[in-house]
Amino acid sequence: MMTAPLLQRFTPLLFVLLWSTGFIGAKFGLPYAEPLSFLVTRYVLVIGLMTLIALAMRAPWPASPLEALHIGITGVLVHALYLGGVFMSIHRGLPAGISALVVGMQPLLTAALAGLLLGERVSARQWIGLALGFGGVALVVGSKAGVDGAGGEALVHMLIPALAALLGITAGTLYQKRFCPRFDLRTGSVLQFLPSLALTALVASQTETLHIEWSGEFIFALLWLVVVLSVGAISLLNLLIRSGSAVNVASLFYLTPPTTALIAWAMFGEQLSLVAIAGMAVAVSGVWLARKG
Q1: Is residue 3 part of a domain?
Q2: Confidence class of residue 1 from pLDDT cuts 50, 70 and 90?
């Protein structure tokens, strides 16, 4: 059995691995459903599963309505805004690599705001690490990303949801660290996904047909995103926010595009150039510096 320190050491690595499979799930599922309809179905299943788990284990609910409100707000930012933005940008035609690069700016944005909002000191070593991480991510996705035939107006149309996702995940991390860093992961997940479901369903009802093609690929992607991402990875993210600084947690997101590229190479045969491999090495070095800062 793993000791607690050993488990804590491997938690960030496991989080990065699970979080990186989100783009793979989108690749499998988005051809069969519109983005927000996909997410509404996902949220319904997550809420049902986590409610059963919370009730069966008699998990504690927040002690006050204010605490529940804070948890709900983090859910809207991290789930409704971030996931909705990423899925919509890919659905509009933005390559997943560029979406990952846009969201990959989160650590720099978090570091810039953490000192002001949370009173965290960001050292020079962390700034260097964050800059290296961003440079590594740019090398990885820049070696394979492109928006062929897209003019300026079309590119802006694709980028707006990705930029909204960047703001959502950044604000969600900072807000949770400031207002509700510790809560029960079982009941907290229910409280995070309920308002996310309400908001996403409202927008989807006004902008989408809500049609889903229930193919085997879609069902696999849906179950993977529900169990592995929405339960497993989100629980690990909450644990990391609880135990580490906002900058340290944010720096892990630099490892998502390189890890996704490796998974895509293993599963779909997508080739990695020497530039991409060099970018992965730079990104890993940057994360190491940022987390040691």
Answers
A1: no
A2: very low
Write down the pTM of the prediction: 0.81
**Number of separate domains in the chain:** 1
Q: Which of 195, 169, 141, 179 is nearest to 83 (CA)?
A: 169
Whether residue 26 lies inside any domain: the answer is yes
What range does the domain containing 242 cover?
14-292
Residue 9 lies in a domain: no
Q: Each residue of 231-277: pLDDT tens digit?
A: 888 788 878 877 776 677 777 877 877 887 788 778 777 677 788 78
How many residues would you count in the chain? 293
In a domain? residue 2: no
Q: What is the pLDDT of residues 52-102, one digit of tens each?
A: 999 999 999 999 999 999 999 999 999 999 999 989 988 888 777 677 777
